Predict the 3D structure of the following.
Amino acid sequence: MRVSFKLNGRPVEVDVAPNELLINVLRDKLKLTGTKYGCGIGECGACTVLVDGKPVLSCLTLAVDVNGREVVTVEGVSEDGNPTPVQRALVEEGAIQCGYCTPGFVMVGEYLRSKKRAYSEEEIRSLIRGNLCRCTGYVNIVKALAKALGGG
Amino acid sequence: MSEHVFIGRRAPRHDALPKVTGALKFANDLEAPGMLIGRIYRSPYAFADIARVDVSEAERLGAVVITPDEVPRKLFNPRLVSVDEVTYKDHLILTKRPRYIGEPIAAVAAPSEELAQRALESIRIEVERVYKPVLDPFEAMSPSAPLIHEEIMKGDQVLKVERNIAARLSYTEGDVDKAFREASVVVERSFRSGKRYHMQLEPKAVLCVPEPGGKLTIYATTQTIHNTRILISQLFDIPESKITVVKVPIGGSFGSSIQVNYLVPIAVALCLKARRPVKIAYTREEDMLDHSNYVFHMRLKVGAKRDGEIIAGEFHNILDIGAHQIQAYPLLGTSLGWFVSMYKWKNIRYEGVAVYTNKVPSCALRGYGAPEVQWAVETVIDELAEELGVDPVELRLKNYVGRGDIFWGQGPTVRSVIKSDGVPELLLKGRELIGWDKRGRPEEKKGRFRRGIGLGRGFHTSGAGGPISGEVIDFTGAVLKLNEDGTLDYITALQDHGGGTLDAHVKIIAEELQVPPERINLALATTENTPYDVCTHASRGVFVGGEAARRAASIVKQKILEAAVRLLPMAVNPEALRIRYDPAREDAVIYVEGMPEYSITLRELARKVWQKNWGTIAAVVTYRATSAPPSFTVYYVEVEVDTWTGKVRPVRVVAGADVGTPINPDMVEGQLHGGFAMAWGMVFSEDTPYNPETGELANRFLITDYKIPTAQDLPRLEDFKAVIASTKEPSGPFGAKGLGEAAMNPAAAAICNAIYNATGVRVYELPVTPDKLLKLIKEREGPA
Amino acid sequence: MRPSAINYMNTHILPSFEYYEPKSLGEALELLDRLGGDAKVLAGGTDLLVKMKTGALRPKYIVNIKRIPGLRYIRLEEGVLRIGALTTWHDLEEDPVVERFPALADAVKQMGGLQIRVMGTIAGNLCNASPAADAAPPLLVYDAEVVLASVKGVRTVKLEDFFVGPGKTVMQPNELLVEIRVPAKGGSSAFVKLSRTSMDLAIASAAVYAEFEGEVVKEARVALGSVAPTPIRARKTEAVLKGRRVSEEGLIELLRTVSEEVNPITDVRASAWYRREVSRVLVYDALLKAFERSRGGRA
Ligand SMILES: Cc1cc2nc3c(=O)[nH]c(=O)nc-3n(C[C@H](O)[C@H](O)[C@H](O)COP(=O)(O)OP(=O)(O)OC[C@H]3O[C@@H](n4cnc5c(N)ncnc54)[C@H](O)[C@@H]3O)c2cc1C
Ligand code: FES
Ligand code: FES
């Protein structure tokens, strides 16, 4: 099947089989490897992308399902090539260790930022519980998101 | 910290931007033209003899297939760290006698994962015999148990295995029986830990590319490119010079790639047969079948005099190592090392036995047994303090192994004298911060929700170096060269698992040469362009690797000064010159001492050295550390136990670390945060239990049922306090030691002691799920 | 000995299937009628695709209902909350009307992680019929109903009668759950869940709906999750609670009836013993939470 969608702001068209998953189409066919496989069953959040602005797990999304939609991956969040406030905060707060989980946290952070409201620490912790990180104990990730989201 | 310009300064890591933008490529992100995707056919039985592997259908589907008969049949050990004579070898690349569910039997490669999967599913095996799996180490040691291995190799000697005992080690010092007779208080307890899985976020992956001239290039998730090369060379009889292993970023490891992961030789075999690039990327489930840690069955007995002087320690250690040896024998030694280096037992008896079972082969998991041993020791010490009626902090201060004492964390053959020791500072500061003296006694605590404070103290070594060669290989190397524009290329085989090791190296070089860290390029490292490094293990990255980097920098510095003498003719010799960072010029400036007007920047110097045909200023260093000093850590943890449900909530944490000079203070804190989180999982949820009948993982390999803590399960920001001791390690680069593993080691003990302080319940078996804890609480309180 | 299924699991990819993407409800119902038991409905996919990857299910046909217009809504009409088949957990999370159903709001907050809530539907949660489904206990205490449509027409089933066993409902293969109906009531309610970590299925969960007069329970409805082959109502306990004071000493002891009403199993998440022990604690906690809420004046 031919699907067309907007990817990181640009229209794309790809041929996919119905059983192809968005994560594999992004990584293998469209060469956007920033989106990571960590489990394939929804548990880790490393594969998070935005579909129509909302954070979705690309490992549990059929590629045909994004036909006509707008997809943003970690490669596409930057603003005119500059890192976003979420990305900057993650860098500055030492929230990145091995970095394998990072794209997933960036995507959730971007979604929360798009809501244009402040989040408490408790809310942030609850909203990122679908993203696992084995290195950081989340401390600096929470700090970074609190900073970027103007934590209240 | 003001004595240093770059060290101790908080700075984002060099690879933060590529990581946060998704640009950084991990092994699974790589591809090569014409690449095939490999999949591994795994044993569906825990213990069986396979007569035949039928791959005809897979081949008909167009897949390239390898079976046990088509790969080298040499016994090997995937972890090269012990010297040959004590390396136990019992692995085959592919086996007809699978010894755990998931052991590789065959492998396929096809142009797409879907086709590879179809080929995989078409493989049929003819089973000669299926044995009932042996899953309990005590059962395994009974004379009637079937032998999981009959013969293995130790070095080049054939070894007959008896009663499934893979290796053993015993040790005595002093007269233990006499000491116990003389002791006024003796505490004896048994402990069992869980079989934890590393759950590093990146499942293992490898890409193997055939090159012209019979060469191979391998990109793999590994902690050691050099050992990967050596092993592949040995297994396939290919000279090392024809194999290049490239260092690629790794998405966390925690010990899981301390050995060469099984997919690497399999990918090589597929690649050699297909003569095309082959990539294998594990699914999460396969990753869980590739590595998990050892299960410790420990019995500890300690004795002390009335005045609190400890006089005897006995440690009986049965290790359930799973189906193969990766580093079971060295672990028997390090377990002993963890034990003896905790307290001055004076009289010691140790009996360590490593036992085969039909489980996933065990390997190191952040701390290589130290979290388990320190959990047991710190629990027993807590009990001892209670029996003696002394403050647990005081008892520790009185008896711990500290400055001036002999330390041999990594086992009996790696001993050295402790030269830096922040334990008193951390114990006393933490005690204040947590409010230790107001913690109360368990008997006084009533009601449904009860709070308690616990203490755990421990350490990890910085590497496995020592003054004599011993049984462990541990040395490293570094290459540093000054480029023509005054930037530098730094090349090291050492891997950064995420802890910021290489950023520490860069800062060390920056400090030595007084150049800004941004000017130092962490160059692509391969086995071709780096001296040997054993592995990034045992928290040696900063202490050992950092010192190699410093030495390289120091050689380069000397050469810079020598060149400068030729460019600043007023200086009589290099000794007359100094080098310092000049923020205005954002460069290192070489100047005549006392006469700063005679100076040259490093940029100018580099350019001139080039233009004048003086050659390249560079250094190649290979370095062996003669000690492996302990990094001490101290955890004070407050928890709240819901005595109706057995659920425990973290309330506050004070995490103290003695890392010598903190090269990257923010990364030190990051390690503590991560270490505590991992300990929390170790205590409450992390385990991979087996179905006793089938030998299958009860969670069916799914992380849905391997729970690690989330952000919501851990303490709030204001409730986690990191304390860094102000010490300096004389043998480390700029006074630094390691941290990675120490950051976690004693945290589990602190949590368990806190549970005791809240409820009066001692935890002797991990993980203590709410289920188990509730049972313990009910047993203690009697029927309601 | 039964061989392990390890070689038939691949969480990188999905096994192949024939794919349908109906553009209307009518078309979907026709398809389901035609394809029969070999077809699976795909909504958020957070249950279905996981089962396909792990080899638990290999459906021949997939009917993706996500492009059917008009199935995604939350409406409070004439005292009934209507939730469409494609309404996600996150839709509920974002809609203030859910605050009027606090037990449901509690469940929304504790369900999965953000991404799972963005993808997963409430209807899918019910149709998947896990004993641990977080939507079930709250909807049971609200006496919710589900509307099932097929080419033959539409029928309404009480949620209590909907679940048959683990993964089993009264739904026929040709039926689609099109709407969930939740009557709004005047009392107070709450849902509590116990799990291994904050991102997990319930070890056990409980919802309570109650009407209080001062401290006295006038009317109570109790439901539990993950303690029996299906989510259950605990009617004996409801009767026991009637007329009791929430501050009554020994209330937790009275709730022993809960432990009699549940029929749990031992699995990887917890033992049957534990589930039995904590189920009454969960009911107790939910009751007290509902009571606190009633004093805050919110239903
Ligand atoms: C990581 C993770 C965490 C989770 N956490 C939780 C949790 O905390 N609590 C919880 O309860 N669940 C949890 N789940 C399970 C799952 O997310 C929920 O059950 C979700 O609500 C399912 O909805 P869905 O739309 O994704 O269903 P799908 O997967 O699309 O469908 C589920 C089943 O219902 C059928 N179906 C779906 N819609 C209809 C319909 N309208 N008519 C007829 N049949 C239909 C499908 O054929 C399928 O059999 C979790 C899942 C994952 C992967
Ligand atoms: S890979 Fe998608 S959630 Fe883990
Ligand atoms: S930084 Fe390694 S998993 Fe998060």
Observations:
- Chain B touches chain C through 50 residues (CB under 8 Å).
- Chain B has three domains: 16-23+475-623, 33-131+208-252+257-280, 295-466+627-781.
- The longest strand of chain B covers residues 310-322.
- Chain B has 18 helices and 30 strands.
